[in-house]
């Protein structure tokens, strides 16, 4: 938006003050929402997964599934099905087999998801191949 346009609609000082307050308010609101939405950031969940899955091909396949399923948000919930967490377990309580902290601990969710992919498909790479062919795993 050009300054001359702002001058036409309001005094420059008032327009800039209003814009600054709006930006600051939006920034604070976004910060507080994201800080409470997921207790663990996507990058730290990814770092945990990287440690748990050292093979690059297997990690990349696992990462692609998680990105599609939850965007690396350990609190992601599908409102229609009830699927939950990084790997969208259904029912969500299945992840309790990996630990009692399954609702909040990305490492527990990753462990459960990795075990699930290995048991059902043979590996994360094979699970990703299935996901690509079917849009789910």
TrEMBL record:
Signal peptide: 1-37
Residue span, Transglycosylase SLT domain: 59-125
Origin: domain of life: Bacteria
Any Pfam family: SLT
Keywords: Signal
Record bears the keyword Signal: yes
Keyword Signal found: yes
Stored InterPro entries: Lysozyme-like_dom_sf, Transglycosylase_SLT_dom_1
Name recorded for this polypeptide: Transglycosylase SLT domain-containing protein
Organism: Streptomyces lucensis JCM 4490
């Amino acid at each position: 938006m050009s300054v001359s346009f702002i001058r036409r609609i309001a005094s420059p000082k008032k327009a800039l003050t209003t814009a600054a307050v709006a930006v600051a308010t939006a920034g604070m609101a976004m910060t507080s929402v994201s800080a409470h939405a997921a207790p663990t950031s996507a990058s730290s969940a990814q770092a945990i997964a990287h440690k748990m899955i050292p093979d690059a091909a297997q990690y990349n396949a696992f990462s692609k599934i998680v990105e599609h399923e939850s965007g690396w948000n350990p609190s992601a919930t599908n409102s229609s099905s009830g699927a939950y967490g990084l790997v969208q377990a259904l029912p969500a309580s299945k992840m309790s087999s990996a630990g009692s902290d399954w609702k909040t601990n990305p490492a527990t969710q990753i462990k459960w998801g990795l075990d699930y992919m290995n048991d059902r498909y043979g590996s994360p790479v094979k699970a990703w191949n299935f996901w690509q062919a079917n849009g789910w795993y």
